[in-house]
Design brief:
2 copies of one chain form a homodimer.
Chain A lengths: L6 H23 L22 E5 L3 H12 L3 E5 L12 E2 L3 E3 L5 E3 L7 E2 L11 H10 L3 E4 L7 E3 L9 E2 H21 L9 H15 L11 H7 L1 E3 L10 E2 L5 H7 L6 H4 L7 E4 L4 H11 L3 E2 L2 E8 L4 E7 L6 E6 L1 E4 L3 H4 L3 E2 L3 H9 L5 E8 L3 H4 L6 E5 L5 E4 L10 E9 L1 H8 L3 H12 L6 H4 E8 L15 H12 L5 E3 L11 H21 L1
Helix pairs in contact in A: 2-9, 2-17, 4-5, 11-16
Chain lengths: 528, 528
């Protein structure tokens, strides 16, 4: 800090002399802004002098590397197992087919314009790297609804199995907590924890925040109903007076365990404003492919990765012509193959990286998309986007964040498990059986399912031939022992992907991992 | 309830025999759903036998009445003061001009595609009447962001005037409250308020909900940072470990009074999922006008409303040809003129209705739209939609809920007051002075304002020639004494509009009021 200057004065000075962008940089360095994992658009300065890079995988990590390295002067090629770009950045639409391990093939029968994203599907506002690529590549975004106060929280063990509105559990819990704390505050039981003057402000704040009445009670009345909604909403004309609703008792909320779902709406990763690309998450992968698609060899199943002090040679099989192996080589290799697959490929890296590759299990996850004749969740239940959570094996139902209030058919994400026994159980089923189960379970929350269901498609990530799981599942111990070894450049090979990041399973992890890898690789190349 | 049947069994039975729509009706009647002020699409059955209705005002209330009454067989005409339909349902775009009382004319200079909504601008998910008309009339909706965790809460009296992220105030307050309540619970101080078994669940719930650590403390660490965000976000590759952030102390939050803004995000009226029409709020008024525009006489300033037992005669002046009065008559009259104006018009209704018309003052409100060279709130501050609140006279800054992450110019709602001294003070200024003030105040929150500002437009509702204020400002006492008298049919005249509803200032109030009025009027007409 310059002597004699306050932060504010300093900022003003910077703002006046250097403009607002400089000021924002200064604000960041003064600790007024969060430091992002994304350091801004990468600058790979210096001439790589014709060096070549072979990228394994045309997911987001691979395509980011290809885009930036080609621009920096490298000769780039990509090998990709699938017949399409994007990897897990993928959308299923009517007409698409997908064959999982075990050989079962599904044909998606959704109507035109409807889709599900079997992999990633939402973008937090602080995933700056991904947002910046969306901007550069012209991917149009729309808000993704995570918290919908009118969606449901459901437990077969609570409220007689009757779904509760998120709103009621969320606001009633906050109200009861506020009332309890106000009571002990008034009784002088906070002692030294809160100063006397603060206690008065605390009471005032709890009343406002907790929707308490003038006696600091959370009770039925217009005050609480202005937050939790009414038994009868206010209307117009005669007989239009609102009727207050009954809060749920604290003991019922506590016993229901439904409060456990509230964190899903408050986490940094799930807070407003979240996004999704208009038209499906694969708009991102497709936008990258528009830039680097010419570099990709599809249907290339890597079977061996060899390096020596001159370069890297990769053996692969054309999956459309089984048996015929081919080879590709380059000075350097960026490998974005998921560790679940890579651990089964012959690769001559040092023992630390090899141990790291073998150390990370992959999360099991199942998604099911269900098409219905009409958007009954909007028409009957006034649920516009957002997620309902349940203790049933389907775990959650997510409503589309697009096409609101327009009527017509719709596709729900009718099941989305993440780890746990349900994932394994559903994975063990045939695809159509998963769909059947999702309809059966979901109809406990939305009885309209039975009349309105048309068709469905399911994705069990542990049966995915190109990932064998959903995402790297790091434990704290594994991170300590293996993470840095995984990310180091080993000879002429460096790994990238969500598994090589602290944001596993998110697209941003893949992108930041890739940017860090190519930054270090480029420096290594320049050193010669 | 049928004897021997549980609710669930009954519902299943209904569902099986009568389908899901019938089941939903049954769920509603069993208390599983909220009773809306909107009773579904209105059915005006029975022949009005050529009866005619004169509607005063082509705002939403007037156009709803026109649409439904014409369809029911009435002869309908509308008189409208403005030269456009919609009333307060209105959008200002580049090229539009507006002359306020006092004669000052503004020309809006926004770039193509940019706008502000000087009046209503957002739609709660439970405003079923409005949503249903949007659906019927083909108005495309998109989500309106009210709560953005990354927007600011600002007070000149707190944190040295430095804006705080909504996220930090919201999550830290919840964390501290949870910690305090957990502490007294552990010390056994809740006594009889919470049963022993519930206390253990309460502790568990507070830990989850309040982001407490294993000792029930709300402290710096990964647990709290997973909610409030990090000092350094997690990244990819090497050196990517997240760094936890420091929570704000409870005493600082309490003293800041910033907690007072949190209710703005939790109220039933402001909860997710909210909507706005794509392209501006006046898409709604325009959609109505597409249906009933042929019935509207524009530029018609009503000066007298007379009724006798045969019909209603209205005298009006063509404001484009001052001095020339004209007359219109019909069997019945639906008057949607704001009470602030109507109270100054000669109208021969009974004393109770006249007293009601005179009893309701109108809220003062000012909005200012500001165009900037770039969307710095997104680019620099990662604020995508939502509202920042401040104790400055501008009260709030609202960021556009559309065009996210695409760059280019943008228009902020740079001021939105609702009552209070600021509204009067700003109203007393010339339009360009309001804009200048909004820029000056706003730059305390966004220093980028000074470099990036281009042009602005302001709306002070108390200077609006067609409303003389923003919306009816009912007190509880006034409602008791006058509300029913206002809504009764007086002879051949019935009033409608947001002022004749329990949802003042909202478009839904105007619509529900109108539906109730025409429903009663129609019954009266059929009785003969």
């Amino acid at each position: 800090m310059l002597a004699g200057f306050s932060r504010r004065q300093l900022l003003t000075l910077i703002g006046m002399t250097a403009g607002s962008a400089a000021m924002y940089q200064a604000m960041t360095s003064l600790g007024l802004a969060v430091e992002s994992g994304y350091k801004g658009r990468i600058k790979l300065e210096g001439d790589p002098k014709g060096a070549s890079v072979l990228i394994l995988g045309a997911g987001l990590a691979g395509m980011v590397a290809a885009l930036e390295l080609r621009q920096a002067g490298y000769k780039v090629q990509i090998l990709e197992y699938n017949s399409r770009p994007g990897g897990r950045n993928w959308t299923l639409r009517g007409g698409d087919t997908y064959t999982e391990l075990g050989g079962a093939t599904q044909k998606c029968e959704f109507d035109e314009g409807l889709y599900i994203n079997p992999g990633p599907w939402r973008i937090p506002y602080h995933h700056n790297g991904l947002l910046d690529y969306c901007k550069r590549l012209g991917v149009t975004l729309e808000p993704f609804q995570q918290l919908n106060h009118n969606a449901f929280l459901h437990s077969t063990e609570a409220f007689g199995g009757k779904p509760q509105r998120v709103r009621d559990i969320k606001i009633d819990f906050q109200g009861h907590v506020s009332e309890l704390l106000a009571k002990v505050t008034q009784k002088g039981k906070l002692e030294g924890d809160v100063g006397k003057e603060d206690q008065e402000m605390l009471l005032e704040a709890l009343r406002s925040w907790g929707a308490l009445d003038k006696n600091y009670a959370y009770v039925k009345g217009l005050t609480s109903s202005e937050f939790r909604g009414f038994a009868k909403d206010p209307g117009g004309g005669l007989g239009a007076e609102p009727v207050p609703s009954d809060p749920i008792a604290l003991t019922d909320i506590l016993k229901s365990q439904l409060w456990g779902n509230l964190a899903n709406f408050a986490l940094y990763e799930f807070q407003t404003t979240m996004f999704q690309p208009v038209g499906g998450i694969d708009m991102i992968g497709k936008a990258f492919a528009k830039e680097v698609g010419d570099l990709i060899t599809f249907n290339a199943k890597v079977t061996k990765i060899e390096q020596n002090d001159k370069g890297v040679m990769v053996t692969y099989e054309d999956v459309s012509k089984p048996g015929a192996t081919q080879q590709a080589s380059a000075d350097w290799c960026i490998c974005t193959i998921p560790l679940s697959i890579l651990s089964q490929i012959d690769i001559n890296v040092g023992a630390p990286m090899k141990a790291a590759i073998d150390a990370v299990p992959y999360v099991s996850s199942v998604k099911v998309g269900l098409q219905f004749k009409r958007r009954f969740w909007e028409e009957d239940d006034l649920i516009f986007g957002g997620v309902s959570y349940t203790n049933l094996p389907i775990t959650q139902i997510s409503y589309p964040s697009t096409g609101f209030n327009a009527g017509g058919k719709g596709v729900l994400l009718g099941c989305y498990t993440w780890g746990g026994p349900s994932s394994y159980e559903l994975t063990s089923m045939a695809p159509e059986e998963r769909v059947r189960k999702a309809v059966e379970y979901g109809s406990q929350i939305h009885p309209q399912y039975k009349d309105e269901f048309e068709n469905g498609v399911s994705m069990a990530w542990h049966r995915s031939p190109f990932t064998l799981g959903c995402a790297g599942d790091w434990t704290e111990e594994a991170r300590k022992e293996h993470y840095d070894n995984l990310c180091q450049i080993d000879g002429r090979i460096v790994l990238a992907g969500e598994h090589a990041s602290y944001i596993p399973a998110w697209m941003e992890g893949a992108i930041l991992s890739s940017l860090d890898a190519i930054d270090r690789l480029h420096k290594r190349v320049l050193k010669g």
